[in-house]
Design brief:
The chain is α/β, with parallel strands linked by helices and about 200 residues long. The protein has one domain: Rossmann fold, CATH 3.40.50.970. It is built from nine helices and eight strands. Strand 1, helix 2 and strand 2 form a beta-alpha-beta unit. The N and C termini lie far apart (about 50 Å).
Length: about 200
């Protein structure tokens, strides 16, 4: 099986990105979206492992006219596997979930995750009600993945990536700054009406 470069995968998904709302799981997914270009509509989950998909779901339900992309890792998803069932029941048509599966917990010493022992996240997503779920293992499949991310409909993709780390490209660490800039970029002047 070919292992893709996670940084190149994320760069492909976010170029061009238009007004895509992006939630990134803790660790490498946050570094990857930042390496593709820090953006006001990026929301990296600093210190919130296991919450990227549920955060993306809440955002998709609150903003049904906007496309939401969750970029997370296999370790983070496995901590909140029930989130796939909740998304499957909710069926938001504007949510895309991309799991960068390197089969290890990259931030804590490369211990093997369950996907390294054969757990098939695509099949789990499918069983939870994702009609569009796939495993991506080649550059040619990335073209279809990019179309699905930019398109409409609920989708899930498990992308097999190389576990080798890339250079850290850290997003801002200030949670209030991240929240406020995301809110202002999304809502514009309306964000000040609810304060």
């Amino acid at each position: 099986m070919t292992l893709l470069n996670r940084r190149e995968v994320v760069a492909c998904l976010l170029n061009p990105r238009d007004d895509l709302l992006v939630i990134a799981g803790l660790g490498a997914p946050a570094w990857d979206i930042t390496a593709a270009g820090d953006h006001a509509l990026n929301f990296p989950m600093w210190g919130g492992m296991g919450g990227a998909i549920t955060t993306g779901l809440g955002l998709a339900l609150a903003q049904p006219l906007k496309r939401v992309l969750v970029v997370t890792g296999d370790g983070e998803l496995l901590m909140g596997l029930n989130s796939l069932a909740t998304v499957g029941v909710s069926q938001p048509k504007n949510l895309a979930i991309v799991v960068l599966d390197n089969e290890v917990y990259g931030e804590t010493g490369k211990q093997k995750t369950h996907t390294g022992f054969g757990v098939d996240l695509m099949s789990v997503a499918s069983a939870c009600g994702f009609a569009n779920s796939s495993i991506i293992t080649s550059d040619s499949e990335l073209i279809t993945l990019k179309k699905n991310v930019d398109g409409s409909g609920l989708m899930f993709a498990q992308v097999k990536v190389d576990p080798q780390p890339d250079e850290l490209v850290l997003p801002p660490r200030d949670g209030a700054l991240l929240k406020n800039r995301f809110r202002e970029a999304l809502l514009g002047d309306q964000c000040h009406l609810s304060n």
